[in-house]
Amino acid sequence: MDSTLAQPVTATAVEIDIVRHEAFYFYNRRENGRGVVIAQRISPERAQGIVEANDDVEQYATGNVTFSPEPCQWTWTAKLAL
Fold first, then answer.
1. Model pTM?
2. CB of 64 within 8 A of CB of 2?
């Protein structure tokens, strides 16, 4: 008989930000409030893929989220639990 106790399962609160500044895209990721990826530059295609892959979770945006070639500024945030 195994005498070890089962560890409780805890969810990880994850926040993902995509920040567009002019023609540049940056990725941020926080887990349980702690920054694990901070201002990592990513391609426009990767940014769009992240936004599209998380279209079914709680989201917030400042500015008009667009992937057109014209320079603009916006921030998109997704909140999820893993």
1. 0.84
2. no
pLDDT in tens, 65-76: 999 999 999 999
Return contacts of 65-71, CB within 8 angstroms, 24+ apart. Answer: 65/20, 69/23, 71/22, 71/23
Question: Distances in Å between the alpha carbon of 9 and those of 12, 33, 74, 82?
Answer: 10, 18, 35, 11
AA identity, residue 78? A
In Å, how far are 4, 6, 19, 49 from 60, measured between CA atoms? 42, 37, 12, 17
Spatial CA neighbour of 51 closest among 74, 19, 18: 18
